What we know:
Order of helices and strands: HHHEEEHHEEEEEHEE
Helix content: 25-40%
Distance between the termini: 62 Å
Strand content: 15-25%
Largest sheet: 4 strands, antiparallel
Mean pLDDT: 78
Number of helices: 6
Shape: rod-shaped
Radius of gyration: 41 Å
Amino acid sequence: MENTPRKPYDGFMGTPAAKVVGLVLAFAVCFFMMYMGLYTQYCLFVFIGVLLFVIPKLFGVKDFKVLAVLGVVFLVATTCIGGLCFSAPIMEDNTTEDFSDEKFTNLEIVEKEDGKYQFSVDYAGSEANLHVGKVGTTTFKVIFGLNYKAEEICTLDKDYQFTMVGNEDRYTADVELDKDVIYSFFITGDEGDETEFVIVSENLSDGVFTSHALKWNLYVAAIVAIMFFLILILTTWMRANLEKTRKKMEAEGRLYPQGYGRCKDCGMLVLPGENVCRKCGAPIDVPEEYRRKPVQQEPAVKETFQCSDCGKEVPSDATVCPHCGAEFDEE
């Protein structure tokens, strides 16, 4: 009674084409979720790792090496594409060289001899404040989040109050900035006036934006990849243990080998020794090679005694010795 499971979708699942579709779809869906910044909502990076594992499985991908390659490709591609194509360019486009604002104009940053930087800006209001923060994670959320406010993506470091210069609407502030650290700042004024998110670039050398973007994109993508590999390794280990247990049960006769032991009517699993299906009641047609063989009993050993004349063994019910012909009495 060989089990022939039904193939969904006319047997498409599990074919080489289906496996390719599953791998491509898994990568595309998970990459899109990273691109949209969904991984930051309610720990969805765990969910992305699960999707990266489950989608190929649904299409019949079971090989450990193939899934492992998918995880590595996702990690490398997300890091490189996110860092080089999105994070680094957006930081470079939001530097002070390209700063423009309707209310805060003529922004200048000059490095002083004591290592500090003097920020100067024109503002028609009565008071202005400079908020400086260190740029932290620069990932897909920052790139596509539509909000570039420093308080949302940066760790605020210090606040400075601008000092008015003379009688003009010119404000200045001296700021301490470390070399090759990416800072961001925004300026607030009267009645909620504030600038857009701007990155300070005067203290940076070439390549800092690129290295910073790659580092943080790798950090975020690695979290998803770690979740993916944990699930992959755990499920592979569990499956190996189940296979080991199954082989042991088959060797002990407690379970039919795979391909046997299912009801031909309903497909219910049949255990050795069952003659009727527990689900539908249909008789079980057990293959001949898996039927229990009747136990052959050894013949009973007859009792004997020793002939008093010739010394040979004689059956206990004999009246004459078969060897020497001596006759025996009842005793």
